[in-house]
Amino acid sequence: MLKLLWPNPAALINSEKTKTLLIADPHLGWETSLQEKGIHVPSQTEKILNKLAEIINKYKPQELVILGDVKYTVISSELGEWHDIPDFFTKLQEYVPSIAIVRGNHDANLEPLLPEKIQLLPATGAVFGDIGVFHGHKWPSPALLKCKTLVMGHLHPVVVFRDPAGFKITRQAWMKVNCNSEALGKILLQKHKIKIVGSVSETLKKHFNISLKTKEIVIMPSFNDFLGGRPVNETSHRKEIGGEALIGPVLRSEAVDVDNSELYLLDGTYLGSLNQLRNL
Prior knowledge:
The protein is α/β, with parallel strands linked by helices. The chain has one domain. 25% of the residues lie in helices and 24% in strands. It is built from 8 helices and 15 strands. Strands 7, 8, 9, 10, 11, 12, 13, 14 and 15 form a 9-stranded mixed β-sheet that branches. Strands 1-2-3-4-5-6 form a 6-stranded mixed β-sheet, with no helix packed on it. It is globular, with a radius of gyration of 19 Å.
């Protein structure tokens, strides 16, 4: 069972034996990009650690899973990251016994920065309890389709509100997107160059030994609230929303109903569907 931990950008998977805490996109070391532009912002890594430690102390999970983009640089690692990231995870291990990272598109060459015993999982995702998780910049593994709910990061969804004077307020948001499991299963089988014999369900059962169950995808806000996000309600053209505006192959596919996705603020306030917000 998945529980969204309002008002935090975090979720908890409760299984029979284990509680697993999920966060996404901390982007440690993002301050270095500002410093290169002459904007000097102190490291925020300690604040992020303290916020995460408070959540861990409150909910007492046995494991923590980070859904990608631990660091900010995409390929190389900045000098500050060589200090902040090892220190972050060394301190974090004092709060939670098991830590796993689903590799994101910013996590190339992450291994040298991690202390021992931190598990690095593929970008195609993994299953924890009855929930499938992946980062979002690549297609998930077909094996995740045995889960009713999938959880991803990568998008950093925010909503933008404008008053009559034109001033705007931006708020982080959760998205819940309905998923056509047959359509997604067909796409993933094609990506794996597996011929569909009979039905999609039969082929997945034969090759991956799973029953097709996925009904929804939950998109997490970034755990780093200093970062900007992608204003999902800012574009009025469906083509742009389905293409450039929403990143990640799953969200660009016809297997998900992005237009009617449900949006929630961090405190749990239901905002309506994406289509409704676009029309405000």
